[in-house]
Structures
1.
Amino acid sequence: MLRTFLGPQASTFREEVRSWTVATAKQPPWTQLPLLPDDHPDMLTIRRAWDRHLWESGWAGLSWPEEHGGRGLGPIEEVIFQEECARALLPQPANTIGTHLAGPAVLAHGTPEQRATLIRPILTAQHFWCEGFSEPEAGSDLAAVRTRAEPTAHGWAIHGQKIWTSFATYADYCYLLARTGAGSRKAGLSIFLVDMHSPGIDIHPIRQLSGHAQFSQVFFDTSVPESSLLGEIGEGWALSSLVGSHRVGGAALGASARWGDICRLMDRLEGCCARFGTTTTAEQISAAAQDVEALKWQIRIVTELAMAGRALAAEQSTLKLIWSRLLQDCSSLGVDSECPEHSDFWREIFLDLRRVTIAGGTSQILRNVLATNLLGLPR
Ligand SMILES: Cc1cc2nc3c(=O)[nH]c(=O)nc-3n(C[C@H](O)[C@H](O)[C@H](O)COP(=O)(O)OP(=O)(O)OC[C@H]3O[C@@H](n4cnc5c(N)ncnc54)[C@H](O)[C@@H]3O)c2cc1C
């Protein structure tokens, strides 16, 4: 039977989640969250504590197999959980590369040994992951990756440079895209699960517009064991691509987490506007609230389509285009509200959110995917 967000099973689960989120939101430290951007170092400390709290309370890995510490539920329950956390203004998880990318990929394509050693530490918040895809000259054009992995007697020698690696300074593992063969650009790529504590990995944080250094340049001149290769040699493009099967659930889940960010900003915005905003901002907030509601339903539809096995590259692109625009719109409205009490917050968040239309695929690239895959326009 086709599962939906409106079925009795989903409603029962939502009630269970809501009673927990409402109770949790009344407990410190979750009651007194500071007013900071999500990627601020202090906020990241709170979000990492939230990851641990989710594991300790039995809410980590809702759709992951029970044998690896998950709850064996499905994507619908994952999204419902995010929706309810947003409703209760609870924090966003920190280790999303672990939970939305590396974990699902290892579960689907890893060896029994990789699953046994890498999955549970993601759920318990013991291992934090980063994503090593982008390089100078290989961002939007990801197939141009030049970092090389050469076979050795004991495993692989990795040499190269990554850039814009978020949270590299915190990471225990990197989901790394490297070139293993001369083949065609895409066929020559493979994925490695690299222990970031290995000797020969040099991390140089990059200072951002916000003044913080949330991402880094990472230089690899290191050796990793044979067991670091994920899947087959040459399978890296399929395992890294935004349209790869392991990302289908992850895209809706990632969008759902971002929807939560938007709800938290809207809550703040409504507070500022009620006291200090102009009529114009009040009307704009009301229009934005309708877009936020529409996004919630779009995420639900994409989740249901993914569960029905539909290929979803264009739908995923649409979700990211919408949530990134909404986040930026909210920050602009916050600045426009001219709230004297929270003007520093809105200024900081406005600058911080410039990143969201670049990270994880730029809006221009996503529009190209949409134009060719959904609208069938010629290139
Ligand atoms: C906050 C943040 C966090 C990030 N975290 C990570 C991370 O953890 N791991 C990781 O691997 N990467 C990360 N990135 C990198 C991100 O994936 C890249 O910045 C992004 O893919 C764009 O690549 P680029 O910066 O090389 O820009 P380029 O690809 O050089 O693009 C420059 C401009 O040209 C446009 N453009 C390029 N090609 C086309 C085209 N064919 N058609 C139309 N327009 C085009 C782009 O849209 C963009 O506006 C992060 C980036 C940011 C901002």
2.
Amino acid sequence: MTRSQRATNLARTLGAALAAATPQTRADLAVTTSTTRATASRLVDDLVAGGLLQEQVRPDDARRPPGRPGTPLAPGRGVAALGLQVDVDRVAAVVVDLAGEVRAEHVQPGDHRASRPAPVLARLARLAHRALDDARGLDLVGAGLALPGLVGAGPTLLRAPNLGWSGVDLGRLPPPLDGDLAPAVGNEADLAALTVAYAAPGRPGDLADFVYLSGSTGIGGAVVVDGRPVVGRHGWAGEVGHVTVDPDGPVCACGSTGCLELYAGARALASAAGLAGPVASAELARLVEAGDASAVAAVEGAARALGIALSTVVNVLDVPVVVLGGHLRELGEQLRPALERTLSQRVLSASWAPPRVVVAERHPLAPAVGAALGRLQALVADPQPWCDARSAT
Ligand SMILES: [Zn+2]
């Protein structure tokens, strides 16, 4: 078997094992991947040796040798990735294992509007240290960092309007975010969307094609097709929060006017409801349910703005499912009726594929979890270097 065939077969075997709803055996995987039992068994041995799969040995099997064709295989719980998040109101660090379980989680609230990058990134590094301490003993594949802005080569954070950051060199982060744990940096909405696209590393979620909305003060967006964020030529696609709802509207932090996030961002919603300071979306939802007129008007205004912006996105891209994440998740049931109504009016194909609004499952740290998932997905797509490095030691 040539090296490239082995790489392909390792990826197919691991992919088939992780994608299945129930634990697969070597015999199952031989059928799924159309290989012989001997080949499937050899590939599984390599994946088990690399910690990417583990054998589920029942107590009554304890005295039988491992590697039998009928032994069920589970994702390797000893392999994990570090996921990091910088937001306007928090920094977070999580460790997620190959089964998709969050094994460590640290969050520190803060007000990062118009902040300086260095102290915020130093706080993030301290949280990462704590998460890594909790995850001692796990084999880490790498780290991912979710940021609310445009990321360029380098990596450089080109611009994050709500943090007030621009041109931040992310190639030189404080330890432990250097060396092997230098994070792959991505847009927070693109990464958070992975928590919807994947139920666990290598296992697709219920939705493969959708528009995901994220964020808190601002609104991030991601367009996902076939389970992958469509990021465009430079990686900057999906900025639904800066789609114009009203060109004569107020000035946005991005320099444009009347952007969606000025109507549906958390701060904009609180202000429209006549509430001072940042207000939790759950509190706003309670006010709407209690019939508070200002809160009802604020949420209806946000739903209309979302409908105008998202109908444009759906008309252009034919992705008629909208997933509400971030702060919009908590207002999902209050936003849904007016939002679906506006989408039905404005989406040309609504009669044949009615636009659907789905509320994301609770995942308060979706960007950080998604950042870790992104690294684990990269490992699942090409496990050979990992396996070879472990068999060489
Ligand atoms: Zn804007």
